[in-house]
Batch of 2 targets.
Target 1
Amino acid sequence: MIISQFRNYSPINILFLSVVGFILCLGIFLHLPDKLDSVIFEPALGNLLGENNLINLSPSTNVFITLILTIFQATILNRITSHFNLLGKPSFLVALMYMTLASLFLPFLVLSPTLICNFISIWMLSKLLSLYRQTDVKAEMFDLGMIVGIGSLIYFPFLSMFFLLWIGLLIFRPFNWREWVTPLLGLATVYFILAVIYLWTGKMTQFYTIWLPFTYKFPTAIRIQLVDYLVLVPVIFTLILFLLVLKDNFFKSVVHIRKSFQLLFFMLCLAIVSFYWNKKLTEAHFLLCAPSIAIYMAYYFTYAKKKWFFEVVYAIITLTIIYFQFF
């Protein structure tokens, strides 16, 4: 079965991962729209690129490139998880869970700024998890500040991940004010260079529009069609199972693993609450939640004991995704 196969840390699972990914996005391949344009950079770089900000690809090419990028992200995240031993044993379950989550909604299956930003999220996660190993992290924190700045040029709500840097310092490091200041310097460096470019090109007035998301009011009500989100029910059920398994194993884990799971929780929270910085809210924003949730779900499937049960749980997740893609 699928979970049992991906519990093995074998290179052949990359091929199986590609097959699963293709099956999970088969619905959009069979129901492609006539035209599918994607905006990759917003709004800071978009003001500079103008019409070049629009990616004109055929719908099939757009979806195929998205599938390839998602497979790359899944394998990179799986490698990082195995490197830091977050699951206690190497496997390809994180890659499988990420691939599954990245197929939940149709907006996840096309090129988007959040898809590109997930490469940056995974890169950030790798650097943050390595903080505990280093004696001096000021240079690392400066780099992370710049990384968040670059990510926010692609997708402005990604700026919320800056707070994850300070949270990471709280979790992994004793307080050192210099380590807290250097991420600000890194972030400021990116926007200083951007301001100079805007000034040179005579678009300084457009530079100020970058900050308009800070003026958005936090919505008191969100209109959603509950039927569209029934696909989340088995995912939420799996997360509940994860919490039950984590409760039994949490204090048996080494300290770094516990702290890493706390970091993932705050990463997930920041990805969720930053949605209101996006003027036009779409499901694509919540693709930023996929890395954290993928690791959580993989943890459950790693330690679940009843084979028939966890195989059925994953089968329900995949069948639900396929059903809602076609119907």
Note: The first strand starts at residue 37 and ends at 39.
Target 2
Amino acid sequence: MKDKTVKTGLSLNELAAKITSQSEAKNDYIADTRQLQVIGDQLVVEDQGAFDLTNHAQGQIATYTGIPRRYYDRMRADAPALLTRNVEEWFQKEPKRRMVRTMDTSARAFLSEKYRALDNEELAEAVLPVLLEKDVDVVSSEVTETRMHIKVVDRKLRGRVDWGEGHNFGRAADDEIIWGAVISNSEVGAGSLQVSTMTLSSWCSNLMIVGKEFRKYHVGRAVDVTGEYYRDETRIADDRATFLKLRDTVDHALTEVAMQETLDKYSLAAGRKIENDPVKAVEKVSKILRVSDEEQGSILRHLVEGGSLNQWSLANAVTRTAEDSKTYDRATELEALGMNVVDLTASQWKVVAA
């Protein structure tokens, strides 16, 4: 594991440039579904034009109309005229006002009119000054089709995992973790605005997302205008208060307050050995985590390569698998699943490993 690195994505400057560029290309529209039509891979908004639907927005339309996604995609590929008729039937039969979020020529989200737009440029404006003040390192960041992630560590906040006595394994003498935080957001209804604590293993550069400190769902009042969407003064004030809370949470998350509690969990996990066949242990924990067969194979490989068989090593094998992931979003999910392994109780671990 020593020569591996986290899935880094963008530098902070690249992230800032991407957020700025996207903010200039975004528009929101509120429209009655009777003013909307799906034609092929485009969403036509009356008086606004046609927008190319992202895969995420296609899924939201499928959910809204009650069309199973598998059948939706089959019509999309093999019978686009039938898809148009199906969607139009439900858009006309059960009309509602929806928010269509666009970027350039793409329709990136199909949402409730009550969706509260807490956007990436506002998040960056709130948290970047705190990150600069604390002199943290941005180890990984990205803006994907559905989410933005900023992962930072404060190299002044360090601690060691205690493997206990009787370990001859080399890593046990140098298992240091660095404390940090993850700030993430979705502008398209793929998740909440949130701050989570995080650790970075200095031994193998694995990131592990520990727990959520702040979460704000994108729910607000119905918008009282038609056409292009403009926020009123009250909404702006509410959003400002949310981002101030977010800023304070980031400031608190990057302290020693919760670090020791997490180290204690890691040390406890390091002392719990895998007593049976590691293949079976990985199979059992993979069912708990609901990972794919391919990911299960990667977890087993990284566990064996790590050279030690215990609960902490298994958790790190899961987070190491994040680096093999094809997408940044899935990598982030696997970084969080590693902590699920650490959090297994003694009785749960006995089922996995005894």
Note: Residues 78 and 170 are 57 Å apart (CA to CA).
